[in-house]
Amino acid sequence: MQRPRLSVTSSPSANGEETAPLIQGVDEAIVQLHHKGYRMGVVSSGSERRVGRELERSGLKALFEVIICNEHIVRKKPHPEGLEKAMQVLEVTNAESCYVGDAFRGH
Q1: Which of 16, 24, 41, 63 is 20–30 Å from 48 (CA)?
Q2: Cβ neighbours of residue 6 closer than 8 Å, sequence gap 6 or more
Q3: What is the pLDDT of residues 24-55, one digit of tens each?
Q4: How far apart are CA 70 and CA 48, in angstroms?
């Protein structure tokens, strides 16, 4: 049985370049998921430069197989183009994927 894949996203800053801090505990969770065999990607509205810099600084960049940023897509979030592109690169279906976001939208 194949393990599900996980996509983690990052919200853009006001200018698209400001460094966003990691949510407390997310680094440990990503490392644990990687050790359990989950394949992961990042889909972000941020610039490739900013997202790459933040992932390098966090030490987590090597754990993600795909990184989709603002420059890689035409239709921005909430359109699913970025997620669809990440799933295509990972060669997985919706049923094999899980999306985890970082923006709280309470209703």
Answers
A1: 24
A2: 33, 38, 39, 40, 41, 97, 98, 100
A3: 899 999 999 999 999 999 999 999 999 999 99
A4: 7
CATH no., domain 5-9+24-100: 3.40.50.1000
* Spatial separation of the C-alpha atoms in residues 87 and 55, rounded to whole Å: 20
For the chain, give every domain's residue range: 5-9+24-100
Task: Name the nearest CA neighbour of 26 among 97, 102, 103, 87.
Answer: 102
- Identify the band that residue 1 occupies on the pLDDT scale cut at 50, 70 and 90: very low
d(CA 46, CA 16): 5
User: How far apart are the C-alpha atoms of 87 and 66, rounded to whole Å?
Assistant: 9
Amino acid at the residue 22: L
